[in-house]
Amino acid sequence: MILIGLFDSPFTRRVAIALTLAGYTFEHRAWSVGADFDRIREYSPLGRVPVLVLDDGEVLTESALILDWLEHEAPHLALLPSGRERRDALRLIGLASGAADRGVALALERIFHSDATQSKTFLARSLTQVEGALGALDAGCAARDGQWLVGEAMTLADITVVCYATYLVEAVPLVLARWPALAAHVARCEALDVFKQFYAPFYVPQPKGAKEDNA
Ligand SMILES: N[C@@H](CCC(=O)N[C@@H](CS)C(=O)NCC(=O)O)C(=O)O
């Protein structure tokens, strides 16, 4: 299988980590959503990453869809628990996903608009949303007091929260120490080999038209 996308994308990164934990190997295409936009669009009409091309040629886009496929393919991994713990995990994943979505929006606003034409209202609103979600995630980490976010083992909640928090720290940027329990959980997970294997520092893409007003 082939995984398309740079690992500075937290969406691509969480897929790479989950695939690896499940025992899959993949060819990696380190294509940038800026420079390789047209090439990515040949697989994904939205021109976004991650894209996973299965061995039979089927193309999966959207990290949640790819992970849904993986959960069914690799039930031994127990990416998500069941029952109440599953809902707890999905709630944390939802918060982290919303924050990452706002983080991407913040980054795109800065990439595509000059300082003078950026919407300060939009930037402030997005930052409030990111900070609100990180506050709730911090409470979730504090309640677990150093354990995995749900249950007794690493789940997709840990993978997602950590990948997205690290992305936000670099892309927004933010000082994670403001949320100490979250910062501690992120530090613990980022020290693991599988997280280190798929880390790349946030890279600011330079698409055609960047900083053009009204882009
Ligand atoms: N909800 C999507 C988000 C994917 C996404 O936003 N990827 C970014 C890379 S970090 C991207 O492709 N951005 C390019 C663009 O939206 O133009 C997922 O989880 O896969």
Topology readout:
Elements: E1 2-4, H1 10-21, E2 27-29, H2 37-41, E3 51-53, E4 59-61, H3 63-73, H4 83-112, H5 120-144, H6 156-171, H7 180-190, H8 193-197
Parallel strand pairs: 1-2
Antiparallel strand pairs: 1-3, 3-4
Helix pairs in contact: 1-3, 1-6, 4-5, 4-6, 5-7, 6-7
Bound molecules: glutathione.
- Give the count of helical stretches: 8
The mean pLDDT is 94
The CATH class of the largest domain turns out to be Mainly Alpha
Q: Could you estimate the helical fraction of the residues in percent? A: 40-55%
The oligomeric status of these chains comes to: single chain
Radius of gyration: 17 Å
Approximately how much beta-strand content do the residues carry?
5-15%
Query: The biggest beta sheet, please?
Result: 4 strands, mixed
User: What topology, given as strand order, has the largest sheet?
Assistant: 2-1-3-4
Bound compounds: glutathione
Low-confidence stretches: none
Q: What general outline do the C-alpha atoms trace? A: globular
Q: Fill in the CATH topology of the largest domain.
A: Glutathione S-transferase Yfyf (Class Pi), Chain A, domain 2
Q: What is the helix/strand order?
A: EHEHEEHHHHHH
The appropriate CATH architecture of the largest domain is: Up-down Bundle
Could you tell me how far the N terminus lies from the C terminus, measured between alpha carbons in angstroms? 35 Å
